[in-house]
Structure formats: C-alpha cells, structure tokens
C-alpha cells in the first residue's frame, strides 16, 4: 500500500470515529434533556397540591446552558429553568452544560447553603436518581437522595419564622 492509500484509510477511520463520537454525544444530549424534563415533572407533581392551594408557584422558562466550550449561540443544551416561588422568595433550578459521560447537574439558587457553599442536583447515567448535594469548601459534601420530603424540608428554610413575645 502506498502512502496515499494509507492516508485515505487513516482519513476514513478518522471520519468513522468522529461520526461515532457525534452519535454518542447526541444520545447523551437527548438523555440530558429528558432527565431534566422528567425531574421537573416530578417536582411539579410533588408540589401540585400546594400550587393548587395558592401557597406557592412553580414555573418553567426556556434556558440555554452554556460555558466556554459551548457558548450560548451554538450550545446544544436547550432546556428550561424551573422556579419555585414561596413566601416572597424564589428557588431556581438551573441546568448546567452536560458533564463527562452525560452527568446532569443543576445549580440550585435561592436557598441558603451556609457560608461559602453551593447546592446542586446531580444525576449520573445510567442512574435516574437525583442527588441533592451541598458543598462547603474543603469539607466532604452532604449528599442526599432527592425525594418529595427532602425537597419540602429544604424549602421550609425559606419561610420566615414567627417569633412570639
């Protein structure tokens, strides 16, 4: 085989490899979108009785997750931001760009996370379970399975306490 044929074979293999990577990425993006949508539907279901009673509001709005690798104009990560409003406060669930091997993360804003901490929700395929993660600097993160009761417990922190004299 001469060098031109060798080059041709190498280019064919490269094209096949790139097509495979593209298909994997598209499948992971599809899972990313579905995972977030399913989570939001679950949260809306959990909170529906409170929404029906007018005690809180749950809304979705379009959101395009972006970062340095996927700037907004070309990001394939179109989703929604979910906002829960209660007691004049809001909690936002904001999708982040898909992580390695399809990891799905959402930033949770509006809840106190103690000093210098952050709260996120994480789901690592093939699992469909979401984990509530509270990070505080060098300490080990607190991780809990996200359930209706756990979410309600976190939202309770937003309600001002009545002080009795």
Key phrases:
single chain, seven-stranded antiparallel beta sheet, 36% helix, 28% strand
Q: What's the assembly state of these chains?
A: single chain
Distance between the terminal alpha carbons, to the nearest Å?
92 Å
Helix/strand class: alpha+beta
Number of helices: 2
How many domains comprise the coordinates?
Answer: 1
Mean pLDDT: 89
> SSE order, as H and E?
HEEEEEEEH
Q: Return residue spans where pLDDT drops below 50 for at least 5 consecutive residues.
A: none
Number of E strands: 7
Which strand-content bin applies to the residues? 25-35%
The strand order across the widest sheet is: 1-2-3-4-5-6-7
Main pleated sheet: 7 strands, antiparallel
- What's the alpha carbon Rg, rounded to whole Å? 21 Å
- Summarize the amount of helix as a percent range: 25-40%
Shape: elongated
Please, could you describe this protein's structure?
The chain has 165 residues and is α+β, with helices and mostly antiparallel strands. The chain has one domain (3-156). Helices cover 36% and strands 28% of the residues. The protein has helices spanning 3-52, 148-156; strands spanning 57-64, 78-86, 89-95, 104-109, 117-123, 131-136, 142-145. It has a seven-stranded antiparallel beta sheet with strand order 1-2-3-4-5-6-7, covered by helices on one side. A hairpin with a 7-residue loop joins strand 5 and strand 6 (131-136). The longest helix has 50 residues, at 3-52. It is elongated.
């Amino acid at each position: 085989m001469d060098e031109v044929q060798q080059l041709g074979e190498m280019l064919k293999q490269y094209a096949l490899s790139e097509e495979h990577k593209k298909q994997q990425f598209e499948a992971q993006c599809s899972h990313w979108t579905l995972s977030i949508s399913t989570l939001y539907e679950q949260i809306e279901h959990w909170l529906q009785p409170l929404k029906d009673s007018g005690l809180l509001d749950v809304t979705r709005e379009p959101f395009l997750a972006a970062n340095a690798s996927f700037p907004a104009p070309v990001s394939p990560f179109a989703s929604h931001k979910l906002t829960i409003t209660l007691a004049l406060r809001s909690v936002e669930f904001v999708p982040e760009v898909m992580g390695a091997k399809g990891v799905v993360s959402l930033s949770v804003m509006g809840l106190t996370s103690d000093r210098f901490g952050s709260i996120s929700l994480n789901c690592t395929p093939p699992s469909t379970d979401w984990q509530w993660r509270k990070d505080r600097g060098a300490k080990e993160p607190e991780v809990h399975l996200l359930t209706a009761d756990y979410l309600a417990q976190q939202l309770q922190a937003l309600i001002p306490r009545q002080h009795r004299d």
